[in-house]
Amino acid sequence: MIELDDVVVTAYSPDPQGGPDRVVRLLGPVSLRLAERRVAVVGANGSGKSTLARLLNGLVLPSAGRVRVGGLDTAEDGPAVRRKVGFVFTDPDAQLVMPTPVEDVALSLRRLVPDPAARDARARAALARVGLADRAELPVHALSGGQKQLLALTSVLAVEPDLLVCDEPTTLLDLRWRRTVDALLDALPQRVVVVTHDLEAAARAERVLVVDEGAVVFDGAPADALAHYRTLMADAPAPAGPRHPTGPAPASPAR
Q1: Share of the chain residues as helix, strand and coil, in percent rounded to the nearest 5
Q2: pLDDT in tens, 10-67
Q3: What is the pLDDT of residue 222?
Q4: Where are the domains of the chain?
Q5: What is the DSSP string of 147-210?
Q6: Are 208 and 40 in contact (CB under 8 A)?
Q7: Max Cα separation, the chain?
Q8: Which terminus of the chain has a lower count of CB atoms within 10 Å, N or C?
Q9: Distance between CA 243 and CA 15 in Å, rounded?
């Protein structure tokens, strides 16, 4: 069970006029009970959905209220929470730290599998399950974007977390790799919370949260939630585009 009780997240923002820093609310108040196997979170960029996701494993701590995962408080039991909750970022380069895929997966396993030979074998088996066996010893930077995201997922899943939280895991991928990653996530036995702009993927969840301007504005079945989200986006003002001068373009600055 994931429990959020009156959770608020704030941050300090410098006053452009030079006055005292201002307190800006990023999210909340939010109260939720999430027990479903698949939960999707949708919302516009900057709506607060990534902040909500990062609350679930303690990457972000509440400024007020309480977050518990499996009975563990993220503020008081952070290391224990992170052993139970795996987190996958949008950009795999943000979490791949070792030179080769097999070393990266083995790093995740260092506490679970103390013996180096056994750890290496388990890492290679994990890579083989996602079709990366022949990439095990290549430099990570030589992998495609889709292969990197599969590797990031494999490194997180190697320790068998109870819950996987994914923050827009397919945003940077082409259609083929997006389908590959989506298929992997759909087949997992773990509970998954996924932040996504892919409404087709969100429609396969059991429950969808719609986040807007730091609040959960709809919480329900996928069809209803996505209909609400589409209406919300249709009614939202268009973002300001670049200004096009009517006169001659300004000269490029000297270098």
Answers
A1: 35, 25, 40
A2: 988 887 777 777 888 999 899 999 999 999 999 999 999 999 999 999 999 999 999 9
A3: 96
A4: 2-234
A5: HHHHHHHHHHHTT--SEEEEESTTTTS-HHHHHHHHHHHHH-SSEEEEE-S-HHHHTTSSEEEE
A6: yes
A7: 70
A8: C
A9: 26
